[in-house]
């Protein structure tokens, strides 16, 4: 198969025949951003053996590669528009046709769900593992995209769904966690947690709503303390969150009750890809209600505080159900 | 070094403190495209061992990674604006600080020369060779970006500089070409050809001029027959080019005279990153003159022709100095 045949058969259909893409036959694509809108731009690379497991199904690799970018757009309150796909195929394991069919089919399904098209990209071969770089574009009214800076003392801290599932899924995959035999529905629990690691569930339909209500936002890719910490540093506030208020899946709740997932493990593991928002107190409950039709079960988990002194560190504190502080790893996930 | 320290020390300075970038601290960047302009978007990935050699100097790797994208923008007659940098560092050879200094320093110099800034990106680690994906953004007046379609029968075919240097440079590096001992200035010739392979020389300042005069354009990354062939297929024309009219560097001219580079080798090797343009005949000479102040020594190398019959193949024909046709590989460079 030549590069041109590969592009024509597998990738050109993902352009949805949009004229901006020139059917992937020009040196570049030509995007006309909607009038009055900013273009929100994000890039994420996922590498086999690092960000997904080499034997993961092609559908889940496709979903992870695209959704980690969609999560960044959601965190900026941007509406998805298009994406560039740069894919480096492993020389030693060039994928067979059914892999390519499944991979591009999953991209297509997610494109339809999130209303975006493939704008362009590049296909290469690498003397190493499969590597996928996506650059995604979204739109937001000029000057209105949500940033990490903007949180104010008194803001309520919201989270748009349960945390800790992905971290437990990865630990299960890598044998750092074993489910006890007495856990009800053991096989289903394992499968559910692993699926949540492999395929983050992203909601992009609430961007307009979040943009109206929230002061600041970030997605939880590096773990709640790290990502909320970024909001604190950018905004000059401290954050206090309550373990008892954290939304947990039934699976994590059961593991936590048995002492198999500690609070730092639940909140500190990355890859959850929920959003953490800061919202003026008078709108917090209202926003939670309005997010429900989008399939988001948001919860208020704490508040932003003015730092106790001018040069005090901008901390994220977690209080346990017993009222005592739970020490948190502040650094979060780093790749080096 | 944590990921955040790496970004802060080496990559944030490349944002040139542009507010669009949010100092690389947000989930995404926010670009406000200039009013009345389209955004031209291109992506290219370069992988060590495939698109550059693993021991190449960091400066030349940086220049190649960025310039192959700038070449695509130039081919679309777009003015450079910004770029996303996704870099996957090899786990087994994480670069030392002087490598990172040299790499980012070269990016910075090219940014200044071509008037663009780092908008965002991602840094990861890969269990394989260094891989660099860049997505570059340029601007062109709405609807005016040059495409491959648009060439008309009678158009003159222009090339913006000599071809064949990069291919010879790569063959020298990989011992497929040895310079004869009697060649004058042997060492300089070798160095020059290798540098042209490693560091394509790109001109982006002529975009406005080319957009006014040319009907169609492509960059020569896959070799002249392949890239001109794309213009022919997109435009419904045939192309005839004259070997005697091709601009050649003194180095290639000397090798050709000794029978060490054949015409198919000279025109067929990729990586030259000159532009091939089709221009109405009355403007061809004028455009060549106007390109000189931009450092481009363009030459008219042939013409576009109406296909001889309705379903005739849209061919690229090369005629030798003796008037006879020189068979060309039509497929060009493909990665698979």
In brief, what are we looking at here?
Two copies of one chain form a homodimer. In chain A, about 35% of the residues lie in helices and about 25% in strands. With about 325 residues, the first copy, chain A, is of the alpha+beta class.
Explain this structure to me?
- The structure is a homodimer of 336-residue chains.
- Chain A is of the alpha+beta class and 336 residues long.
- The first copy, chain A, has two domains: 139 residues, 60s Ribosomal Protein L30, Chain: A (2-Layer Sandwich); 171 residues, Phosphoribosyl-aminoimidazole Synthetase, Chain A, domain 2 (Alpha-Beta Complex).
- Helices cover 33% and strands 23% of the residues of chain A.
- The first copy, chain A, has ten helices and twelve strands.
- In chain A, the strands form two sheets. A seven-stranded mixed β-sheet of chain A has the order 7-9-6-10-8-11-12.
- In chain A, strand 3, helix 3 and strand 4 form a beta-alpha-beta unit.
- In chain A, helix 2 packs parallel to helix 3 and helix 4 packs across helix 5.
- Chains A and B meet through helix 1, strand 1, strand 2, helix 2 and strand 3 of A and helix 1, strand 1, strand 2, helix 2 and strand 3 of B.
- Strand 1 of chain A pairs antiparallel with strand 2 of chain B.
């Amino acid at each position: 198969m030549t590069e041109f045949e590969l592009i024509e058969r597998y990738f050109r259909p993902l352009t949805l025949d949009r004229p901006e893409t020139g059917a992937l036959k020009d040196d570049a694509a030509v995007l006309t951003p909607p009038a009055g809108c900013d273009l929100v731009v994000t890039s994420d690379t996922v590498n086999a053996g690092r960000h997904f497991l080499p034997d993961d199904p092609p559908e889940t690799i496709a979903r992870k590669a695209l959704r980690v970018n969609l999560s960044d757009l959601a965190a900026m309150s941007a509406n998805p528009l298009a994406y560039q796909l740069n894919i480096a195929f492993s020389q030693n394991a060039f994928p067979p046709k059914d892999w390519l069919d499944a991979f591009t089919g999953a991209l297509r399904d997610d494109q339809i769900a999130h209303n975006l098209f493939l704008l362009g990209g590049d296909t290469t071969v690498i003397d190493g593992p499969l590597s996928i770089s996506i650059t995604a574009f979204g739109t937001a009214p000029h000057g209105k995209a949500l940033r990490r800076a903007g949180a104010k003392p008194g803001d309520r801290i919201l989270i748009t769904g349960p945390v800790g599932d992905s971290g437990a899924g990865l630990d299960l995959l890598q044998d750092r966690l074993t489910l006890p035999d007495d856990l009800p529905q053991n096989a289903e629990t394992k499968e559910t947690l692993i699926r949540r690691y492999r395929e983050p569930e992203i909601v992009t339909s609430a961007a307009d709503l979040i943009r109206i209500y929230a002061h600041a936002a970030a997605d939880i890719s590096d773990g709640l303390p790290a990502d909320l910490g970024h909001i604190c540093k950018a905004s000059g506030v401290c954050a206090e969150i309550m373990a008892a208020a954290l939304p947990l899946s039934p699976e994590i709740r059961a593991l936590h009750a048995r002492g198999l997932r500690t609070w730092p493990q639940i909140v500190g593991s990355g890859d959850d890809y929920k959003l953490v928002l800061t919202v003026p107190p008078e709108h917090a409950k209202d926003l939670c209600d309005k997010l429900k039709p989008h399939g988001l079960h948001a919860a208020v988990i704490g508040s932003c505080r003015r730092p106790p002194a001018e040069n005090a560190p901008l901390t994220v504190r977690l209080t346990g159900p017993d009222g005592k502080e739970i020490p948190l790893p502040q650094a979060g996930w780093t790749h080096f």
